[in-house]
From TrEMBL:
GO terms for biological process: Gram-negative-bacterium-type cell outer membrane assembly; protein insertion into membrane. This is Outer membrane protein assembly factor BamC. InterPro entries: BamC (IPR014524), BamC_C (IPR042268), NlpB/DapX (IPR010653). The lineage of its organism: Bacteria, Pseudomonadati, Pseudomonadota, Gammaproteobacteria, Pasteurellales. The keyword Metal-binding does not apply. Signal peptide: none annotated. PROSITE patterns: PROKAR_LIPOPROTEIN. Its main location: membrane.
Length: 334
């Protein structure tokens, strides 16, 4: 009987705890209990000073203006890739200075030839060339970069120089003002490229026109040099050729009026010989006017080549060149 009374009492208690109203309140948003939210009182520091976070190294919260993008590419500088040369960039132009006797290899005419082969349009004015817009061809360029260059040849009796400067520049068809670093980068690139290709052409020409070197009689042949000029190549070094030419040129009517051994240069004055004299040298009489001419001798180790030009610095060509060089060859090799 006691057990029955306890069971009835427990059942009544459970029924009271799970009334319909309490079940609804358990699953609601507790909005009715918002007033019962816990609130915190201000901390009593008991007289102690509480130090806040150190903000000396705190990053600024305001917007910081970004600077211009930096060009982190390694600088391109003019390279002294001609023997006994000096190369530099002066803040605006890239240049290479080399001995005057190498002017026949490195000159504005050779530059024009290379530009034509590359398909780069240009305008020539004396010893200066200005290119049209051309792509830089650098793989690390940001955008489509096009440049216009000014290329110039300078020189005197002691030295010669090729100079390259950036005239204008545009990126993605928008004209921009090149920075000093960009001027150095693109001017040096073109200068190094041109000189490097002239070096290659020079070595190739040496191989193609090389004649057997021997210690016996001098051999000679009429060739086209690196400037595409008609020349007389000889199997003798500079000193041998210089002396030999000095002996035979007067026999052909070329009087030596001035000479600069260091440059391999002679000024000549021509007075025509009759046809009989030229026939004696084994050739026909050339159609040359009396007057001033010049001779330029270039040495390639134990080989050399000579070019004769008129008063306008134009090399002899055609039948006149063939007749003069044939006569020289016959006199030198006999």
């Amino acid at each position: 009987m006691k057990k029955l009374v306890l069971a009835v009492t427990a059942l009544a208690t459970l029924a009271a705890c799970s009334s319909p109203e309490s079940r609804r309140l358990a699953n609601d948003s507790y909005s009715k209990h918002a007033a019962d939210t816990i609130k915190f009182a201000t901390l009593d520091t008991a007289g102690l000073t509480i130090i806040g976070a150190e903000n000396t190294y705190q990053l600024p919260t305001e917007n910081v203006k970004k600077g211009e993008a930096m060009d982190i590419r390694p600088p391109s500088k003019p390279m002294a890739i001609i023997q006994n040369s000096v190369a530099q960039f002066d803040g605006n132009r890239a240049s290479i200075v080399y001995p005057a006797e190498r002017q026949s290899i490195y000159n504005i005419q050779q530059v024009q030839r290379l530009l034509t082969e590359k398909g780069i349009a240009f305008k020539a004015n004396g010893n200066q060339v200005q290119t049209e817009w051309t792509h830089s061809d650098r793989h690390d360029d940001a955008g489509n970069v096009q440049v216009r260059y000014i290329i110039e040849e300078l020189g005197n009796q002691q030295a010669n120089a090729l100079v390259v400067a950036v005239s204008d520049m545009k990126r993605d068809d928008i004209v921009t003002t090149p920075t000093t670093k960009e001027k150095e980068l693109y001017a040096s690139d073109l200068l190094n490229q041109l000189v490097g290709e002239l070096n290659t052409a020079y070595r190739t020409q040496q191989q193609q026109t090389a004649l057997p070197t021997n210690t016996g009689p001098i051999q000679a042949a009429i060739i086209n040099d690196v400037n595409n000029q008609t020349a007389l190549a000889m199997t003798s070094n500079f000193n041998q050729s210089w002396t030999k030419l000095g002996n035979v040129l007067p026999e052909l009517g070329f009087e030596i009026t001035e000479e600069t051994v260091g440059r391999g240069y002679r000024s000549l004055k021509y007075k025509a010989l009759d046809a009989t004299s030229w026939a004696r040298f084994g050739t026909t009489q050339p159609e040359l006017e009396d007057g001033e001419y010049s001779m330029q001798l270039s040495a390639y180790g134990n080989q050399s080549a000579v070019v004769i030009s008129n008063k306008d610095k134009e090399a002899l060509s055609g039948e006149s060149a063939t007749a003069v060089y044939q006569a020289l060859m016959n006199l030198i090799t006999k």
